[in-house]
Amino acid sequence: MAASSSRVMLGPLVAAIDQGTSSTRFLVFNAKTAELLSHHQVEINQSFPKEGWVEEDPKEILQSVYECMERTCEKLTQLNIDISNIKAIGVTNQRETTLVWDKETGEPLYNAIVWLDLRTQSTAELVRIGKAHHGLVYSKTSCPLCVCVCPLPQCLTGGKSGGVHCTDVTNASRTMLFNIHTLDWDPELCKYFDIPMEILPKVRSSSEIYGLMKSGSLSGIPISGCLGDQSAALVGQMCFQEGQAKNTYGTGCFLLRNTGAKPVMSDHGLLTTVAYKLGRDKPACYALEGSVAIAGAVVRWLKDNLGIIQTSTELEKLAASVGTSYGCYFVPAFSGLYAPYWEPSARGIICGLTQFTNKSHLAFAALEAVCFQTREILDAMNQDSGIPLTQLQVDGGMTSNRLLMQLQADILCIPVVKPSMPETTALGAAMAAGAAEGVSVWSLRPEDLSEVTSEKFEPQINPEGKGHVKHCYLISK
């Protein structure tokens, strides 16, 4: 009973909605220690109505948010934790997934078009051909012209009945309508793409009170943090210093490097994005970003399409049983190649097969593919910055695969550092929400930030082995 009583006196708590491509989660943290107290997760179904199309049901997404919130509150109550101690809620979401809804009824007009979708490839190509307009878009947005906003705050704050129609700078910067230099919607870009500016949400900082929850067990709690998922992970990894970088291994892979208060434009196939703006009166911070379309999604493909594994944990066991791909190479370009090539017409390939090749070798090749693609982005990032990265901070679901993490350290030839609490995306949203003016239960001052325990994977490859890694790396291109 003593332990239960002490848990009641935890002090301020902050929650986070983590709405990702594959699942929705709701997590509650102790604002003083960053300890994760409880969470609930619901998987999201994807549909593929045509070749290259990827969609999700927006009503299912919203329902999953409410379900996760209620189930987590039930778990907290069972732990004798008072949910009235939750002082704020942050939101982090899959970026670039697009949804349009009727402002009068609040009903979606179509499914959510997921960021992996390729249907706008022909439109992007037309813009690319028009060189002058391509330059206009890139100079203001730094977004590549390929298939690449968050309605959750409006839905949660009342929807059609007075909900707040807003987004934050990190999500807005991924639309090709937002000027990353002026930090506002760009009239020239909106006119070019024929988007009425009046339908766009108001752009706010990543950390301020947007509105209050209007229903459910947490009704009345302020929603005060909003970040695109990769920006949230950068904050959750506490990469607040220029030069710090993190890679998130989710459905895709996303490597961001903090470049400070000035945007650095890439010459090597990366893009410049708004990393965060932690307060209305705080300056924006920028990042260089490189993205891999298929990371964790390759595990799902091996499970659902080929049936060679039943669970994601089996992949590590299969790969570890052989310890090498024996010359089998896998390029999972299911939705084209992202950074640094930006080639949407590319498709996946498996090569180097022999009669000896079996599913274990393919499993190992799948893990190597994730590592090789990350290596390509890191090389481009080092060239742009001129300062080689000395270690890479990592997070995301795939980091539970220890073989993958060791392979990544070997292929990068630098240490890979994994926090013991892997939910850094949700943590970043919670930090932004708790630090917002009017909430102020989470200090972001460097001296106040909780120390995070982590595991470091050191490269175990010898100098001769580096040549082998480079050979594999070139094949992956």
From TrEMBL:
Transmembrane segments: none annotated. Keywords: ATP-binding, Glycerol metabolism, Kinase, Nucleotide-binding, Transferase. It is an enzyme of class 2 (transferase). GO terms for biological process: glycerol catabolic process; glycerol-3-phosphate biosynthetic process; triglyceride metabolic process. The keyword ATP-binding applies. Gene3D superfamilies: 3.30.420.40. Residues 246-436 form the Carbohydrate kinase FGGY C-terminal domain. This is glycerol kinase.
